Amino acid sequence: xxxxxxxxxxxxxxxxxxxxxxxxxxxxxxxxxxxxxxxxxxxxxxxxxxxxxxxxxxxxxxxxxxxxxxxxxxxxxxxxxxxxxxxxxxxxxxxxxxxxxxxxxxxxxxxxxxxxxxxxxxxxxxxxxxxxxxxxxxxxxxxxxxxxxxxx
Length: 152
Prior knowledge:
Helix 6 links the parallel strand 4 and strand 5. It contains seven helices and five strands; from the N terminus they run ααβαβαβαβαβα. The protein starts with a helix and ends in an 8-residue tail after the last helix. 49% of the residues lie in helices and 14% in strands. It has 152 residues and is an alpha/beta fold. A five-stranded parallel sheet has the order 2-1-3-4-5, sandwiched between helices.
């Protein structure tokens, strides 16, 4: 039967560089862990994005004040400045506000509420699931009302 094969093919279709063409976003990743950096970067590359990396919250705030990003994938626990503090600083900037997605290993419902209460727009647990990331990026694109004219 072909049914199990079709089910296995679905995630492969998610990893298409056409995704970034369909949902063009400028993405900043704020993540201090090199393994997580590599993993997130690889997934975004396969979706067709060329994301910029910040090593901590302080660097993320600096990069956002220099260039407009539509989406920030924000790790919660980082040295120098954590994700909550960085988000507070970003929200105070007089810029077109990015869609901030918290990334955390904590996957409890109250953790999601804490992230949203801290000014973040969405939440994704680590390790990241591809289908969840794709859904969150689509939502970011829709909420930001980004047009196809934006370069990816």
